[in-house]
Structures are given as structure tokens and as C-alpha cells.
Amino acid sequence: MVRYKYMPTGHYTRTEKHRAQLSEARKKSPLRPPSYLGKHHSEEVKKKIGIAQKGKTVSEETREKMSKKSKGRKMPPRTIEYRKQKSESQKGSNSNNWKGGITPLNKLIRHSLEYKLWRTAVFERDNYTCIWCGQKGGTLHADHIKQFAFYPELRFAIDNGRTLCVTCHRTTETFANHKKI
């Protein structure tokens, strides 16, 4: 009885007869009784499956099926008001990662919506171009002219920001906590 058809690439495929035999064997297996069929995976198993699937590519046929299924779905509007509402609804004790307010203030500010909007406004004002060397695009930083730590009232002032590329930002006097008072 031939169960596998040998392929010249070193891979094998199961024949239809073998697939049917495997299916019947799985249904009769004492390790997996029919009562377990159709049950959902636990969160731990889902994580393991996700790790195992990481980096694998999806065939074009599967991509087309997924595309057809997702067409027609309505996504919520991504306006600034919506983003603020969504952000507020998941802050503090409403968050599933809440650990009693242990996040440092600096991190809270730098990950806030207000800070993200400040960065975007600075980049748009400077046309996504480094103001010192003229590099357009790439990895850009929104740098505070007056230091973030020492001037809390100027943290979100657009005229206190400038767009710099990574190389130029590293040459500033205040880069990486080299504070000059």
C-alpha cells in the first residue's frame, strides 16, 4: 500500500486514500474523542499557534478569499475626535493592562495622543524635511528646542519643535540626556 507520493524536491504529498484513513483514525482516537471536536482553543494554545505561524507566507488564493470576505465591512471613522474617545475609554483602570498607575509620567506624556499630534504638526510644518541638512523623509525626529524636562509649559508648543534627521539630532547638545542647563 503506497501512502506517500514522492516528489523530486524531497517533499511528499498524501494521497486521497491516505487522507481518508487519517480522518477516520482521528475520529476514533481515544486521545481526541468526538466531544472535543468543535471546541475553541485556550489562550495559551492560541499564543503557541501564533508563534508557530509567525513568518509564514499566505498563498495568493487564500489572500483573495480573505480580501473577498473583508470587503464591505465598515471601519469606524479615524477622526481626531474618535481617536480621543477611543484613547480615553482605554486609559487607567479601564485598560486590561492596568497595574495600579505605575507608569512614569514621562512615558505617559510621550505616548499620549496630544504628543503624537504635536509631532505630526511639527513634521507637517517642516514638510517632513530635516531643517539642518535638508534630508527629506527617512527616519526623522521631532526635537524640542527648549528641553522637554525643564520646560513643561512648552512641551506641546509647535514653535518649540523642529524636525531633525537622526544624524543631526545626535549632534544637538541635549541628545540622550546630555542636559545643558
Any key phrases for this structure?
mainly alpha, 4 strands
Write the layout of secondary structure elements.
Blueprint: E1 4-6, E2 12-14, H1 16-28, H2 43-53, H3 60-70, H4 80-89, H5 105-110, H6 113-125, E3 140-144, E4 161-165, H7 166-170
Low-confidence stretches: none
Number of strands: 4
Run of helices and strands: EEHHHHHHEEH
Mean pLDDT: 83
User: What is the radius of gyration computed over CA atoms, rounded to a whole number of angstroms?
Assistant: 27 Å
In spatial order, strands of the major sheet run 1-2
Oligomer: single chain
Question: Helical element count?
Answer: 7
Beginning-to-end CA distance, first to last residue = 83 Å
Structural class of the helix and strand makeup? mainly alpha
Shape: elongated
Largest sheet: 2 strands, antiparallel
Strand content: 5-15%
What is the helix fraction of residues, given as a range?
Answer: 25-40%
Describe the structure.
The structure is a single chain. The chain is mostly helical. It is 38% helix and 9% strand. Strands 1-2 form a two-stranded antiparallel sheet. The longest helix is centred in the N-terminal third of the chain and has 13 residues. It is elongated. It starts with a strand and ends in an 11-residue tail after the last helix.
